Amino acid sequence: MPEIASSKAKGPSAEQKLPETNGKGSASTLPDQAERNRKINELRKLIEGFDDCMRRSDDLFLCRFLYCCDWNVEESFARMVKLFKLKEANPEWFFHKPIATYQELLNRNIKFALDRRDRRGRRVFVTRLGAIDFSTMAITDLANLDDIWFELMLNEPETLDSGVTCLIDMSGYSLKGLRFLTPQNIRVGSAKADLLPLKNIEFHVVNSSVFMNAAVAILYPMLSKKIKESVHFHYSNWSSLHEYVPADILPQEYGGSAGKVFDYEAIVRQVMDRADEFDRLLTFGGKAIVPVTPSQVPSVTNGKASKTKGKLKGVDKKKKGMKEVPVEE
To answer: What backbone phi and psi angles, to 5 degrees, belong to 14?
Structure first.
């Protein structure tokens, strides 16, 4: 996985290749390698000069935004800025603690990514709404889980090209979940989903019911047009689902042939075996540390610190380009 960077970024390792088209992307929007490198470097200069916060600027991270914006540098930069501003305004909606503290939450198997891909080469991201404990969980817990699993998937070049298929299982979902559907939660959640740096994403809903249709009816009008167009309802029609997600990667509970249930232990290991990497890659956005020279350290006279003349370089510096970016409805 690439290294996190503040203002000085390292690119992917020699083994980590940048995305190559696999025939699913648009040939008209995929520049050659030399042009891609030029655009990556151009975007890196923009983001490194954006503000005085720690920002990831490794090649693979920048490619996420370039890929979903058809390699348009200006659009990619604007998308990054909006996402950073959304994170700064709503930090609890984003991964912000050591991943070890999420172990118990991950073990609930509410959200997870399969280690195999669907018919179009897309990673399959499963959400089991019936596994949510509404008495102890907040909607921001679910948002943090999204960050963890999408970090895993988006660090794979093939995912940037092919995309992600989201399988949403509504069986056992309690109407208590309706309390999550506040205008503020929907506004922030929808904005975060719209800014996800992924061009191709689809949602496949299964095991819906009359009660759950009522919840969907409330939520659906508030979603963006882009998300609405990517949602498919299969109810319990497994043959319909298997047209997108093959039966051989699904367990029996979804009409598949890959065992009785998912291998949850192996699934969670995909993340926990790389805990240090996730802590390094996901925690970014805070203020960069400003070096202090000996001349800037207050002197002590008679037990009292004297005031340092002037200001530390970089402290209280006005941020350039930090205009407020409203959350798009």
So the answer is: -60, -30
Angle (CA) 39 2 202, round 5°: 75
Q: How far apart are CA 46 and CA 63, in angstroms?
A: 14
CA angle 322/325/328 to nearest 5° reads 165
The DSSP call for residue 21 is -
Distance CA 39, CA 59 (A): 10
| H/E segment holding residue 63 | helix 59-68
Largest Cα span, the chain: 82
Report the alpha-carbon distance of residue 164 to residue 154 in Å, rounded: 9
- CA 11 vs CA 14, 36, 73, 235, 291: distances in Å: 9, 14, 18, 44, 24
CA 198 to chain centroid, in Å, comes to 9
Whole-prediction pTM: 0.74
**Helices 264-272 and 139-154 meet at what angle, rounded to 10?**
80
Residue-wise pLDDT for 45-80, tens only, equals 999 888 877 788 899 999 999 999 999 999 999 999
The structure tokens 């696999």 sit at 22
167: amino acid identity, one letter: L
Please give the single-letter amino acid code of residue 289.
Answer: I
Distance CA 59, CA 9 (A): 9
Q: Which residues pair with 125 in a beta bridge?
A: 113, 166
Helix (H) or strand (E) holding 148: helix 139-154
Tens digits of residue pLDDT in 230-256: 788 898 899 999 999 999 999 999 999
On whether the CB atoms of residues 118 and 244 are closer than 8 A, the answer is yes
> Edge-to-edge, what's the strand order for the sheet holding 123-128?
111-117, 123-128, 164-169, 201-206, 231-235
Q: Which residue has tokens 């882009």?
A: 226
